[in-house]
Write a sequence for this structure.
């Protein structure tokens, strides 16, 4: 009877020793569970480490791009646009083909542009310009229905704000990435700029022919007068070539261009510019 407690004590001592040894080993192999230590990324495999580094770089690029886009939209909200990606691309294409780059443009304020020109581009490109917030979903739906029925002449649903986003900040290409970026800049522009500023930028950067950018340069080239003195007939002719100024020519208008010109003149009667 007296030996039983002694055997129990020895067994308990061996048990506590084993538990202590197991605890030390577990603590050594699971340092990240210790409150005083931090998980070391060097302990993970090289593939996981590269993945995390790639995520960090993408995050930095995203933040930098976001900051630059906000800054660019803010600055262009009041200063003249010095050039657009399209202007640079067109000039580079001319140099590559052995021609002198054509670059004719004169920045003018909206007050120096005939109201008839504003009315004409609204009638031609964006009838609900003053009502939407950058996207005309009714026009988009109509374009989808039209394009499903006919593939001979595709119709677009882009607003003037979307065209400004594309012309000023993006490259002329068709891709989902570009369309997503266009939608992003469209939202920024509508939030930061007034409708008058959007119209002013659009009329100063849109292409009216080979190397002819902005309505002032177009008015001087084709009608030998400033943009402030354009009449509705001339303004409608300029607006009629906007879908494709390299295919539809102001200087040599085709029958289709003349048809669009007369249609724009009729639609212009229903466009009312805001007083303020």
């Amino acid at each position: 009877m007296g030996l039983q407690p002694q055997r129990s004590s020895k067994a308990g001592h061996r048990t506590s020793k084993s538990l202590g040894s197991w605890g030390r080993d577990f603590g050594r192999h699971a340092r990240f569970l210790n409150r005083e230590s931090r998980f070391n990324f060097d302990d993970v495999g090289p593939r996981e480490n590269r993945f995390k580094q790639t995520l960090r770089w993408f995050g930095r690029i995203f933040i930098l791009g976001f900051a630059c886009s906000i800054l660019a939209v803010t600055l262009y909200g009041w200063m003249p646009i010095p050039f657009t990606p399209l202007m640079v691309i067109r000039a580079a294409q001319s140099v590559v083909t052995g021609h002198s780059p054509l670059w004719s443009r004169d920045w003018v304020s909206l007050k120096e542009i005939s109201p008839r020109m504003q009315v004409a581009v609204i009638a031609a490109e964006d009838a609900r310009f003053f009502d939407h917030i950058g996207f005309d979903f009714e026009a988009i739906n109509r374009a989808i229905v039209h394009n499903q029925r006919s593939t001979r002449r595709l119709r677009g649903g882009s607003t003037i704000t979307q065209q400004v986003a594309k012309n000023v900040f993006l490259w002329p290409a068709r891709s989902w990435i570009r369309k997503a970026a266009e939608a992003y800049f469209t939202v920024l522009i509508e939030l930061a700029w007034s409708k008058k500023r959007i119209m002013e930028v659009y009329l100063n950067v849109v292409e009216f022919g080979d190397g002819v950018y902005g309505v002032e340069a177009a008015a001087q080239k084709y009608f030998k007068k400033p943009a402030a003195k354009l009449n509705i007939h001339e303004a409608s002719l300029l607006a009629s070539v906007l879908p494709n100024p390299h295919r539809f020519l102001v200087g040599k208008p085709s029958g289709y261009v003349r048809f669009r010109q007369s249609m724009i003149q009729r639609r212009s009667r229903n466009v009312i510019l805001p007083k303020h």
Summary: The two ends are 108 Å apart (CA to CA). Residues 140 and 157 are 4 Å apart (CA to CA). Residues 46-75 form the longest helix (30 residues).
